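the two lines:
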Amino acid sequence: GDWHCTASWKTHSGSVWRVTWAHPEFGQVLASCSFDRTAAVWEEIVGESNDKLRGQSHWVKRTTLVDSRTSVTDVKFAPKHIGLMLATCSADGVVRIYEAPDVMNLSQWSLQHEISCKLSCSCISWNPSSSRAHSPMIAVGSDDNSPNILAKVQIYEYSENTRKYAKAEALMTVTDPVHDIAFAPNLGRSFHILAVATKDVRIFTLKPLRKELTSSGGLTKFEIHIAAQFDNHNSQVWRVSWNITGTVLASSGDDGCVRLWKANYMDNWKCTGILKGNGSPVNGSSQQGIFNASLGSANTSLQNSLNGSSAGRYFFPPLDSPRAGSRWSSHAQLLPPPPLIEHSCDADTANLQYPHPRRRCVSRPLNLLPENEGV
Amino acid sequence: RARPDPRSSCVFVVRKDQDIYIQTLRKLFNESHGIFIGLQRSEEEFAGKSRKTQLVQVSKNYRSVIRACMEDMHQAAVSARDPALHSQYSTQVSILSAMELIWNLCEILFVEAAVAGPLLLRLLDWVRLHVCDVDNMVREVLSSENPSKHELFWNVVDVFVLQGRMDEARHLLSKEASANPTSVNMCRILDDLMKKMPVPSLGNTQTLTEMELKWQHWHEECQRYLQDGTFASNSHMESICKILLGDENAILEKKELMTTWYHFLVTRLLYSHPTVKPMELRFYAQSSMDLFLGGESSPEPLDTILMAAFEFELHQVIKECSIALSNWWFVAHLTDLLDHCKLLQSHNLYFGSNMREFLLLEYASGLFSHYSLWQLGVDYFDHCPEYGRVYLELHIERIPLNTEQKALKVLRICEQRQMHEQVRSICKIMAMKALRNNRLGSALSWSIRAKDAAFATLISDRFLKDYCEKGCFSDLDLIDNLGPSMLLSDRLTFLGKYREFHRLYGEKRFSEAAKLLLMLMTAHIAPCSFWMTLLTDALPLLEQKEVIFSAEQTYELMRCLEDLTAGKSDKQKFQDDDVETMKVEMLRLALARNLARVIVKEGTLEGS
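prediction for all of em together
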């Protein structure tokens, strides 16, 4: 389970902003983007057997995408069901979508779309949904700093009619610079979930309304809700990332912490863990194991500090206010657990039998269960 | 924005729930998995009473698995040298023990749903199992010279009385009687009272009303003895009599011997209300906890859970357990069992079965982070009707396929569930990996499995290219045994047939080989780019002593050659290197010669 570096190479002539993997169906493929106004696609070449023994691998540049006139701030591969495509976005506000028509030839990419977002772009995210009801969709975030109240998150959708990407939506409530953006995996929902890293963590739900064929090119209209907003980082939030099932969101911020968020039964999002920069949990805040027993101490104050302003542990709603039918209704809450039992401190370790789950600090061995319980 | 610290330019890999990987817990997961599956499959085999018995048995099975795990964990704790590890294991044992305690209570109250009468007996058993072990004390007292003189003698008697273990209490009293003549009378009376104490029966031997009546009489008798001052000279026996009368204060005095409020609760019930009904428990439970804790301390999580159980707030029990335990194992399995008892489908719980499913999803998702436990997770997802499949689809794609065996295992699982997209994807990934490592045979078999015609064509081309360069095939076994999968792509078919040609040639079955070769061109199975190679392959056949190609076949071959060369413009012909031109010339010559021979042969009468 050890990690070691198998390759490292210098190539861009400016800071490399982002790196992203293509789906393994296409092989071992990476894309990088840089301040030097280029994005590049890389493929791992199986090298000499000597190299393999030494744990080294070789990466070859397959193509350089030079269309941008400014720093390329993000590069992301499209979901595999769309094909071998990638999108880049630049500081001058242009989003470019490239395609490699022959998936076996990574040196041939053609620029398929150029989208002008009018605002300097900082991040993009493809909607991973492979449902036939959903057209290809990209969310674009902007870190434009000039004082204005323009929407810093835009949603572009591919229209079959016009064979182009067009702006379907703009999140008007996001007016601060956006540093990262991520669609959650879909799970067969009809609506989409989008996480935004800005001055705080925000989670939006976008529910497609019936496509109005009369409107511009048959684009979807969305009903937008903010499912959650957290300022616990108390500083700029730089990255957001979803887990495999889109049930946990991780965010990182200038407070040097990574926070984990999860939704409960009633669409209420809560923090389920805080990690420091080196991965260690903040003061027993995250699950330390399957059977956690954070030793003693008042955890109620800890929980309050975790949840910030949100009070207590209301995972399951009171029974008299039901909300049937919510897709999230089956999600319960995870919170760092208070100690289940007080750890017997002065137990004689030599005589340790099964410590009894009791409140008193007395360790007495547990009755061994006879063969037939007789119950 | 903080300046990056050069020392911290590392990547940290963080994992959740590392404890899952402890060997002892793995056994718990494996065995409970078996019980879980058995429960899902047993669905409506039985009905009514026998169904309940079945469910109680399932509950007992779970508990015995927990206890087995506790034993293993205890062993691990004992043998651990490292104090930190020892401490970790000991903690686990504590928690497992708490889990078993809770589960046991839930079994009594919810799964078995013990009614008034048997309820008390079950609770007594429960307390006896989970209270401090008195065997050491007992052994110590009994094995001493003069048991009744032992300083802990009365403690042990009290413990027996508090736990309702009358026979054992009476046994000790007899020792006191024989050792101490002055108390013989008192002992006899007390012994008699203990003997006569009515207890609820498990069978149908008496109704509750009968029992209550008897109990009332007995209670009054005890009362008389106490008031008469029968036990006045022996404080121990007097206190026991008070306990028999259900005197709360007398019982509370023995706090140290009970150690928990729920022990206190059961003792109280035993001596004041043995025919307690399930729904009455909550009042007694709350007051017991209040009296026992006496405002000294506040309830701990375990207390809250047990209280919720006594109050029959299932929902609360599950919620509190979810909070207290960071892994979903316990709540997932318990909730599933309760759901099978049809307790979660009450109209009060809008998310009853959803809650079951949610907990199972969470638990199973956790298993997928483990290199081998993920296989258990698959079965759990199978039994989550709403989201199970999509969770499985998402998780199974992310399992690292480091070995072929693992890939095949994953594939089998996907194929069994008709997860076609995942099958295709996994095969594609494996095929790509193989192709990159130049393992063409492996790549080909993966493409065939994925039914990926395009990729199969690509790999077949590589095979053919290799053949042209090296003059031989790799992975002959595979190509020879393609069978019907050969039809996946034209190129693959050609590859298979071409190899067959070589085999026939090797077996000296020349006329069959010749026929096949020709067919490959005339039926357009062979790509045009390969015709030259095929025709070159025909040369040795043409040069054989024996005539192989018939006249008609020879004409066909000639036509093929002409088609091939005609396709090229004059310019190309000019640019063709000498080898190419020479080849064509040789072919023309060979073909002509063959034609000549065959005309003669066919013209000659056979058999003369």
